[in-house]
Amino acid sequence: MAAKKLRRARLSQELCERLSRHQITTCQDFLCLSLLDLMKVTGQSYGNVQKLLCKVSLACAPKMQTAYEMKVRRAVNPSSAFLSTSLHGLDKVLHGGVPCGSLTEITSPPGCGKTQFCIMMSVLATLPISMGGLNGAVIYIDTESAFSAERLVEIAGNRFPAYFDSDEKLFSMTCSVYLYRELTCGSVLKRIKSLEEEIISKKVKLIIIDSVASVVRKEFDTKLQGNLTERSNFLARGASLLKYLAEEFSIPVILTNQITTRLSNGPAIQADLVSPADDLSLSEVLDSSLQSHPLVRLPKNRLESSRILLEICLAGASGGRKRESGCVTAALGNTWSHSVNTRLILQYHDLPTRQIRVAKSPVAPFSTFFYTIEKSGFVLQDGKDQTNLTWEGTSPALQNIKVRNTALKDLLPDAALPRTTDETPSNASSLQKGKCNLD
Amino acid sequence: MQRDVGSLPLAPALRARLVAAGFQTAQEVLETGPCGLSKDSLLSPEFWLQCTTALGSFENLIVSSRNIEIGISKEEALEALQVVRQECHSDATRTAGAPGTSRKCTALELLEQEQAQGFIITFCSALDNVLGGGVQLTKITEICGAPGVGKTQLCMQLAVDVQIPECFGGLAGEAVFIDTEGSFMVDRVVDIAAACVQHCQLIAEAHQEEDHLKALETFSLESILSHIYYFRCRDYTELLAEVYLLPDFLSEHSKVRLVVIDGIAFPFRHDFEDLSLRTRLLNGLAQQLIIIANDHKAAVVLTNQMTTRIGQSQSTLVPALGESWGHAATVRLIFHWDNNQRLATLYKSPSQKESTIPYHITPHGFRDVQPPAVTQNPEGTEMNPRKRLRREEEK
Q1: Coiled coil where (chain A) (predicted)?
Q2: Cβ contact A338–B266 (<8 Å)
């Protein structure tokens, strides 16, 4: 809308030519000028310039709709309003599921199930509308190379065995999940910009970006001056593009985020340019704590396991940073928390149970549910108190997230692969491969 | 009348020509008239006749002769004169002190106006008290807060509350909701509106007055939703365009008493390399909103984000968009968290004291933390309608 050319705003030809001599070609340029500038540039009187402004504004302004019309439209086509997560309690609280037309963020410590959730939602989006899906394709932008097609098929087969009874159905489902591997911020942004045509041609009904945080934190070191604003700019631009796509096509967008440590004691560490309210790059805290940790010799399967090490350090083992009391919260800062519309936090409880919390939502109160990760994906624990609705919560940007608190001996498993009949999610996808390697 | 020609709101080229032709004050221009806006012609009548036949009509000759002398056409001259006359007339009324369309009145008149006009209640009596009765009309109120604290919830609540009929203590108005962030969820508004209707029904049952029941017939869920006019602006260009068109829209829908812009910060916080342009645009927006608020007797509510200010020893959250934006709003509320409790602080107000109160967001909307104590308050009649609402508040 901003880039709309003035010619299409029904201004006269000579006026457009005259304006283009002053480098004013789009509506945005026109509306950014003050009235006096406009008078000078167009050579018209005050009253005329106001009429021109009205004309250009009419060309740019959004259409009006009453709330009633919106409600009627949603009632007529309920599948266009939410994507059910197939977790009954969560759906009820969220008034139907993941909302269409807005951004939903999943934040969790590593290994809690973000990628599992995304894979599960991909399966759900391809289901027909009668089963609660959106009957469309999925665009999955993977920045961590964590997507596993085997897991996708496993979840589909185990969660809806009645529907996916033949190989063909599984095959067609996997055909509708389009995976893009992007490894830099620039390429992610470029990909998002190119999505518009793909959404129309492939009939996409869900966009997943897993994860935003990893690619942003790799490239923007907030200790360096200026990087913080650049990072916020990048995130804001990405968020507004995604919001535009979400609303234009009425589809849900799911993003995943990581965690960071928020120190409450001021910037006692070397980062004097970084305030506690912004996140530290995990890498610099990680490096120093890894030096002193005995387990550093273990081969790491993924970057995630090194993060688990970090959490052990933070949770109580000796570490260089122990003096500051820190709490673990969602990464990417305050502005990003403003940009997303819904925030779901996954956190650890007593293993293998985990918690999913609704931390920010325009329609849902704060609530928590317990779940485990099974072969069929997420399974809500019905046994626990189902009415976990609480009115207490706190700022979604500062919500304390429980990290994994296991003793050191449980970590050795990389070599031994014990008793895990139900997969520990930290290696869920690589577990398949892991098993093959070690057997 | 003695206004300098250079300051008239004419087209710049026209202005330049008038000045070059020697006109100095508006009075001179008015006295000359359209035909005399050229000097005396030095051409002989015969020449004129020849030129007439050549040019095809006398009109064309006059036009071209005038063009030669001063370079403006008859139509331009007429238009210029009309503008000048209008300017001088409004100048004269201003200097003569006639009320007319000017914005001059005594403080007594203002006091009567302020006492007569209503407030938009928020259903949280503590917040209403802190604000002096609720959100005031003809003023800009800004709500700043951390993400997820309830700014959009309050905006949706106000959009419903402005429509409460007058017999229940409301304004019976309509609402314009300009959304830049996409957080407006119709289902939530349905919940809030249903709770509000139920509340009014309880009052009507308790009091059994006729006008209550009559008002309730028109105050239903459908009517509430139909009177919320929703605009979704995706970037600042659309926002600017919409605010330009808002006065016309409000003139057509004269019952609108509330304009909400949810997220004035979001479109201005990215992709702005030129910060001075941003300040200028924001100031322009603020000016236009003040004019809208005054002319149409509406309340303007804006929501703002918080940003981190990195200080010496620690960082604080401050409202976004910079220091100069702080001057735009008349009343400023900051919503923040204190562990698990949401708090609202009145940060800036011309008439009320700074204070902090807790509030809740319930499935019914924006509410107090506890039900307020029922007291018989023998203050002016303005308080009573709101008292009635509070007595029946369910929790």
Answers
A1: none
A2: yes
Q: Give which of A275, A354, A260 is closest to A311, Cα–Cα.
A: A260
pLDDT band at B231 (very low <50, low <70, confident <90, very high): very high
pLDDT in tens, B308-356: 777 777 777 788 888 888 888 899 999 988 877 888 999 888 888 899 9
Determine, for residues B308 and A277 on separate chains, whether the beta-carbon distance falls below 8 Å: yes
| Amino acid making up residue A86 | S
DSSP helix/strand/coil, A363: coil
Nearest CA in chain A to B276: A32
The pLDDT score that the predictor gives to residue A207 is: 94
Q: How far apart are CA A277 and CA A267, in angstroms?
A: 10
**For residue A286, what is the enclosing H or E element?**
helix A282-291
pLDDT tens per residue across span B132-190: 888 988 889 999 988 888 889 999 999 999 999 888 888 889 999 999 988 888 888 99
Neighbour tally for B345: CB within 10 Å? 17
Measure CB to CB from residue B186 to each of A53, A67, A237 and give the nearest one. A67
Would the CB atoms of A61 and B238 count as touching at under 8 Å? yes
Chain B hits for A362, Cβ within 8 Å: 152-153, 183-185, 188
Length of chain A: 439
ipTM: 0.71
Choose the mutation target among A95, A225, A395, A398 for the interface with B, i.e. most B CBs under 10 Å.
Answer: A395
CA B19 to chain centre: 38
Give the C-alpha separation, B282 to B272, whole Å: 12
CA-CA distance, A19 to A12, in Å (whole number)?
11
- For residue A393, give every residue at least 6 positions away whose Cβ sits within 8 Å of its Cβ, in sequence order, or none: A357, A359, A366, A399, B340
Name the residue among A233, A243, A337 with its Cβ closest to that of B271: A233
What mean pLDDT comes out for the span B107-136?
A: 86
For residue A159, the model assigns a pLDDT of 87
Of B13, B235, B315, the CB nearest to A1: B235
CA nearest to B233 within chain A: A62
Residues A119-156 pLDDT 10s: 999 999 998 888 888 888 999 999 988 888 889 888 88
**Measured CA angle at B182 (ends B181, B183), to 5 deg:** 95
Do B146 and B308 form a contact (C-beta atoms < 8 A)? no
Single out the residue of A166, A169, A86, A93 nearest to residue A134, CA to CA.
A86
What band does B304 get if pLDDT is binned at 50, 70 and 90?
A: very high
What pLDDT does A406 receive?
58
Report which DSSP code applies to A402: -
B-chain residue closest to A250, CA distance = B182
**Mean pLDDT computed over every residue of chain A:** 74
User: For strand B119-120 and strand B135-136, is the pairing parallel, antiparallel, or unpaired?
Assistant: antiparallel
